[in-house]
Amino acid sequence: MQKNCIILASGNGSNALNLINKFYMSKTGSGLVNISAVVSNIEGAPVIGKVKKNSPDIPIFTIPFTSLSERKLFESALENIIEKYKIKYIILAGFMKILSKEFVSKFPYKIINIHPSLLPAFKGRDAIKNAFEYGVKYTGVTVHYVTQEVDAGPIICQEIVKIEDSDTVESLEAKVHKAEHKIYPVAIEIALTDGNPQC
Ligand code: GAR
After folding, report:
1. DSSP codes joined into one string, 6-26
2. Which of 16, 58, 154, 170 would bridge 93 by S-S if both were Cys, CB 3.0 to 4.6 A apart?
3. What mean pLDDT comes out for the span 123-135?
4. Ligand 1 atom 1: the closest Cα is on which residue?
5. pTM here?
6. CA 36 to CA 33: how far, in whole Å?
7. Which domains does the chain have, with CATH numbers?
8. Distance 114 CA to ligand 1 centre (A)
9. Quick one: pLDDT at residue 77?
């Protein structure tokens, strides 16, 4: 049975678009994932224009949330959308704000995040740059459930990315994004089929 999902994104939207193209436009995969709506917390974020152009039928909402004082209003507006569209899963795709513990606790194992490192290494912002500057030889991508502790929930899927001597931060970013686009749709299907591990 199809499960309605909402995507939350703050920025460029390459992951949001990749998921929409896979699950909504080309309807590939198991048919479990139904992308019902997209929410951005940033007015004018590139993801908004990209989704509108790529898939004008998908409802897209902007709910301002840049400072902590806006979080309560953001979460309450988001909950209304979740109710209206009968959302079962919340997919964070480059969503760069931290949801409150109260909000997260209402949706156990229903919020999924992608992070551009092999967690628990390089939590937080600028994970790709931090891994590059640290000098690790391997980094990667982690898809995990969101819990009250940031970047620490149970891991659904990971993909390793090797850092070559010839890499720059930019080339590493491109490699990490490529890995993200490969594993995020797979990880979401795993999560929605109750964790059958094939990743
Ligand atoms: C992605 O690399 C994603 O893993 C990262 O933001 C980028 C968004 O790119 N997310 C985080 O760092 C969350 N802590 P996109 O807007 O092109 O999808």
Report:
1. EEEE-S--HHHHHHHIIIIIS
2. 16
3. 98
4. 94
5. 0.95
6. 9
7. 1-107 (3.40.50.170), 114-199 (3.40.50.170)
8. 7
9. 98
